[in-house]
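dumping this here before i forget
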Amino acid sequence: ELEALFARIFAGREQERFALAVSGGSDSTALMVLLAEWIGQTRRVPAGAVTVLTVDHGLRSASAAEAEAVAARAAALGFAHATLVWEGGKPRSGLQAAARGARYRLTAGYARSHGIGMIFTAPTADDQAETLLMRLARGSGVDGLAGMAPCTHVFGMTLVRPLLGIPKERLVATLQLAERFISHSIRA
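structure:
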């Protein structure tokens, strides 16, 4: 299944640099673990070609510690990591949209300055369904009801969503299994 998730995306791009947007939540962490596993199995893409990006929005007191935890996990998997900080004032309304815009701007800026052409994000089948329902409730037309595309271009970068067909529950179970295996291997 890992081959089906990643091989087509990387075909012909093995020498490029890539980034993963990882917040530390289960979906993006699962993406990071799955990609590391695929790279380890196939060796088609060097782990050094992948940088994990975490955006610290500065909206919660724990956000810096969460970014540090992602950095530690990324390093354990052989990936470089960078924390991108959303500085400055935050709006009183429309905070989610502003935070999303800040994530795109920060990750795109990092990608451009580091020769990264593609950024992986981790929306799941559940997120896709939620997007469709929200767009339907807003009265979107046919184009809006198409949902998120597996690959799109935004802020001058290619955004890839390889997990759109996988339910969140399955990703969480996969991540839990991987963590138990890693913990068992460390104790042994």
